[in-house]
Amino acid sequence: MVRIKTAQEMGLSEHVQPFEDGLRTGPQSGNYEWWYFDSKYPDGSSLVVIFFSKPVTSMANKFQPYVSFDFLSPTHEHIHTEMRADEYSMSKEHCDVQIGESYIKGDLKHYDIHFKNNIVEAHITLDASVPSWRPYSGHLYFNEKEYFAWLPSVPEGIVKTEIKTAKESFTLSGTGYHDHNWGNKLMIFLMNDWYWGRAKIGDYVVVSSYIYANKKCKHAPTPIFMLAKNGKIIADDAYRCLTYREENPIKDPYTKRYVANTLVYEYQDETNGTHYRITYHKGTEEVERKIMREIISKPLAVVMYLLGFRGSYHRMSGTACIEKLVNGEVVEKVESPAMWEQMCFGKDRIQ
């Protein structure tokens, strides 16, 4: 049975503690961990920086830290680069990860993020405007031992960014997000696919995901949803109140993967009359798309292919619309630019 354990079952406080954003895994084979940051800016540019303890498909018994950097500039120039270093440190007390000259450090309220290699240098500050949150304990168990954990350390915050390349410099202000993920079994063996997204829509902030387990678990779905307004969380009981649908799927010519043009999260709490609808509409430009053989080593890619894995990744941009309904009528509607992703390890659920 696939389920998210409660905070009490995991020995955690109901409120997120700083150590939860520190190192949670060891270097053992099968373990993985990353600290993710993204931001969007009014001029249409976006930035994603991710600190990894090792590649997410690595079976090594050691840490192999690296940092990935993706920047879509105001002129739609895309910079994708990575950096590795032999010197690194990762604290268990709080978020303090350093890989060479790059680092992410923070205390759930304020973060400093720095990236540097021979192509680009960036410094980002992130100040939380929505408190740290997790769905129950944040630990999704696929059996008694194997799990995937997710902590939205900063569901939304104010971002200030400076980026320098050999050609130009940017000073940007916008909205940002940071989460932390880890587990003890490679995701390709536990999950078939997921959609994940987050958006700042007027006074609202939404973090949403739908995770489908592998075929062995009959593609059992796990809904995850959080809605905040003016810095206060107002809805997060996904198991009881959320319905979800994917609409208008189109087969991507590069990845050969079906990608939904529209995602709809419907949150309706009958006990208090709360009803919100969040709709993601895919734009014409994708921030990133990859197939598995571009993400992992060639020998492993061959093995995964023979085992039936057809991995792909899409990071998309478009719009997110929130509607508030009362007695079935829309009484409030707000729309904003947004970014979300699809990760798929197995076969398409749509045939």
The helicity comes to: under 10%
Number of domains: 2
SSE string, helices as H and strands as E: EEEEEEEEEEEEEEEEEHEEEHHEE
Major sheet characteristics: 13 strands, antiparallel
Helix/strand class? mainly beta
The CATH topology of the largest domain comes to: AttH-like fold
Compact overview of the structure:
The protein is built from three helices and 22 strands. The chain is mostly beta strands.
Q: What does this molecule look like?
A:
This protein has 351 residues and is mostly beta strands. It has 2 domains: 1-185, AttH-like domain (AttH-like fold), CATH 2.40.370.10; 191-351, Beta Barrel (AttH-like fold). Helix content is 5%, strand content 58%. The chain contains 3 helices and 22 strands. It has helices spanning 238-241, 292-295, 298-306; strands at 3-4, 32-40, 46-52, 66-72, 78-84, 88-90, 95-99, 102-106, 110-116, 120-128, 139-141, 147-165, 169-183, 191-201, 204-213, 221-229, 232-235, 242-251, 258-269, 274-291, 312-326, 329-344. The strands form 2 sheets. Strands 1, 2, 3, 4, 5, 6, 7, 8, 9, 10, 11, 12 and 13 form a 13-stranded antiparallel β-sheet that branches. A hairpin with a 3-residue loop joins strand 12 and strand 13 (169-183). It is globular and about 60 Å long. The relative contact order is 0.13. The mean pLDDT is 92.
